[in-house]
Amino acid sequence: MSSKTLEKLTVAKFGGTSVADFQAMQRCVKIIKNDPATRLVVVSASSGVTNSLVRLGQENVSSEERADTLANIRKIQFNIIEHLTNQATFTDEIETLLSLLNQAAEQQAQQYSAKNADEILSFGERMSSMLFAQVMRMEGLPGVSFDVRQVMKTNSLYGKAVVDIEELKVNCANLLQEKLTDQVVVTQGFIGQDGLGCTTTLGRGGSDYSAALLAEALNADNLAVWTDVVGIYTTDPRITSHARPIKEISFGEAAEMATFGAKILHPATLIPAMRHNIPVFVGSSKEPEKGGTYIQKQVESRPTYRSIALRREQTLVTVKSPAMLHASGFLAKVFSILAKHELSVDLITTSEISVALTFDNPPGSTQAQLTDQVIKELGQLSQVKVENGLSLVAVIGNNLHNAQGTTSTIFNTIEDSSVRMICQGASKHNLCFLVNENQANGVVEQLHQRLFA
Ligand code: ADP
Ligand code: ASP
Ligand code: MG
Hints:
38% helix, binds aspartic acid, six-stranded antiparallel β-sheet, 22% strand, alpha/beta, binds adenosine-5'-diphosphate, single chain, binds magnesium ion
């Protein structure tokens, strides 16, 4: 690894389960060694850590719960440290970070702030990346850890910060590029820094997106996303054992899957990859020999049905007003309220006098929620109905908007389920609809059986 110019660059991202413990990290290092073009490694927090940090960042955490949660995080780190060489150094480094975390968590219990919540959330990736670099060195790689906040500059929208892509590019050229020629750099996914010098986060699951942004900024040839399944499946393998891995999939289809809730990739991951035409590989760090899914521009086949995605915890808001009839400006008023509260709408359908909107409100989310205040403001405009307990099912494929018989095939298959709000036609890659949460798994299983058996 002494070449001064980098002929080829792969950016590799390892998710939470892939860096859950020392043995898992060792498997990742083996993967890195197998592809000498891998010079930048992006890691998530070790499995379970971010969920604990989310809790520490919330209001109303008792001192007892705080102590238990911190002890749990500490245990995960020290289970790794006990396998490392140079243990004293890493004990000190991690203790320092844990004590900063403790301070931030105490402060949060006294007075909540979204800014401090993001600071708290960042510790998982900061700890895992530091330990991962040492595992690389122990396995003979020239590993160094790099604080991504030096390059990943964002706005101050805590919990869902927006990255300055141009600045990232300039910063990578100035601060990161050169290191890659003779080192393997490990950095944090998910986190960034705003203009005030405060830590920000990019939204749950954001490490995939960080890796894609870095791959774009560094002109990488490939992005490899290593996770706990052997690629992208026809549906979430946790829902049905009939799900099977997909060999290759186009950018458009995969982007649609990610957007519609296939947790395998953060929704924004494919945007930089598509912009820069960087092929993305998704595979399992536990079973790398089993191959995975290639996401790219050109694919051999474009089947009508590719996969089914499911997004839970959807809220449907129906805003109804006779004033909408032949009136202009009503929708603008609705959206200005949502924009003021920084809420993003997923799906929309409208009729003459009503508009139905869906919102994503998953637990553990760090983003703006649909609060009572929002409902109150919408209520001043019109009649508002809020329904929870819904899931969004999206059938992903090609030409779904005009392939003959797709709608009848899909809805005949699930005719016993009550279907709400159908969206078709906005994208050629998907057809989606809402069902009751308690019917969601069954609907996906039935559809999977019909479309992929
Ligand atoms: P990581 O921690 O590596 O980022 P995630 O838990 O975020 O991993 O994503 C991987 C999980 O995504 C899988 O374990 C699987 O349950 C889920 N998943 C959802 N939809 C799909 C799909 N279509 N194909 C594969 N996995 C999926
Ligand atoms: N650790 C963060 C999360 O759990 C980011 C990620 O894993 O992608 O959401
Ligand atoms: Mg993930």
